[in-house]
Amino acid sequence: MEFKFELHTTISEQLHISVDISKITLEQLHKKIFETIEKNAIFNKEDILDIFVNDTLSICTMSIPCNECLVKDFIPMNRNFFPHGSDGKNTYKIYIIDRTYGERLKNVYDAQKTNTKNRQIKTNHFEGIKEFTRKMIPLW
Question: Taking the complete model, does pTM exceed 0.85, yes or no?
């Protein structure tokens, strides 16, 4: 029996891989994902920041660990993150974040952070009155 994975990257179209569920570990799955991406996309192993899956019922995400756990055991333990796909029972979506997309997200987050207004509550209005008076009377 095989599991099929749709690899969703930020640069190229989705990629497809198939693995034999009886023999493959998560570490071997990582290697197969890296090989597929290096062959079909413009980035390499060092450019990949994370390989993760989304929970379909909430906004949670989970990184796929790179260990000796078998894929056939890992998927049923995390069924919320691996729902049955519309294409078939054993088709699952995996998302890949690369370095350039991570930097782009960081820049957007930093820009939003600098544009936020200071919403500090004033307890003393004397400074505001003083600044207003300075603007109205330039000699003071």
Answer: no
